[in-house]
Amino acid sequence: EAGVAQSPRYKIIEKRQSVAFWCNPISGHATLYWYQQILGQGPKLLIQFQNNGVVDDSQLPKDRFSAERLKGVDSTLKIQPAKLEDSAVYLCASSSPTRGLEAFFGQGTRLTVV
Amino acid sequence: GENVEQHPSTLSVQEGDSAVIKCTYSDSASNYFPWYKQELGKGPQLIIDIRSNVGEKKDQRIAVTLNKTAKHFSLHITETQPEDSAVYFCAASKIQGGKLIFGQGTELSVKP
């Protein structure tokens, strides 16, 4: 079974530029999460989707971050405009209530804002 | 709000020794407690989890204990090996919600 796929692996941008990350969850997983992991900290949830509907986006800075999950499969996370403090690893995870409680994580996208 | 505290932040042990990492959580409604291992440049990988109706769970060299009254849970690794070196995260969630609240992480170093 293929894991959670994310791209790109690395991205360096200047502040005020925009950037987008892509995630392809494990096939059949209805729940998709985007987490932000700042260096030296645990991951923090940005947004959770159930199929293509948003379950929780309470921690998403909506003035600059947006996310969508069209057709309930792939998802994109966008930052516009980026700030220095957005430098972090952005992790995508997926899970399925019918297949246990485990959330499977992708390798992440490391974003550096300069 | 929801919070998970994890200690210690770094832990160094000799190969063959045991390692213990402790976490406390604030939300009494939490009922699912996974532990993740994160190696450099990789995403977190689940190593063991426990639900609130169980006090202890073992899987070979790894065990997790849960004290719901005190809102504490711990990870125990016995007979540590150099390949156990990584950052370990505890987390808590309410099963229905699925959102994971992570601790700050423990960097475990196992010296040969």
Q: What is the structure about, briefly put?
A:
The complex is a heterodimer of chains A (114) and B (112). Chain A is mainly beta and 114 residues long. Chain A contains no helices and eleven strands.
Q: Could you describe the 3D structure shown?
A:
The complex is a heterodimer of chains A (about 110) and B (about 110). Chain A has about 110 residues and is mainly beta. Chain A is about 0% helix and about 50% strand. In chain A, strands 2, 4, 5, 6, 9, 10 and 11 form a seven-stranded mixed sheet that branches. Chain A is globular and about 40 Å long. Chain B has strands at about 5, 10-15, 20-25, 30-40, 45-50, 55-60, 60-65, 70-75, 85-90, 100, 105-110. Chain B is about 0% helix and about 55% strand. The interface between A and B is medium-sized, with 24 and 24 residues.
Strand content of chain B: over 45%
Overall shape of chain B: it is globular
Portion of residues in helices of chain B?
under 10%
Order of helices and strands of chain B: EEEEEEEEEEE
Reported for the largest beta sheet of chain A, the result is:
7 strands, mixed
Structural class based on helices, strands and sheet pairing of chain B: mainly beta
**Count of helical stretches of chain A:** 0
Net shape of chain A: globular
Q: Which band does the percent of strand residues of chain A land in?
A: over 45%
Low-confidence stretches of chain B: none
What's the order of the H and E elements of chain A? EEEEEEEEEEE
Class of secondary structure makeup of chain A: mainly beta
Task: Describe the largest sheet of chain B.
Answer: 6 strands, mixed
* Computed Rg of chain B: 13 Å
Task: Supply Rg of chain A.
Answer: 13 Å
Count of distinct strands of chain B: 11
First-last Cα distance of chain B: 41 Å
Low-confidence stretches of chain A: none
Instruction: Work out the largest interface and the residue count of each chain.
Output: A-B, 24 and 24 residues
What oligomeric assembly is this protein in?
A: heterodimer
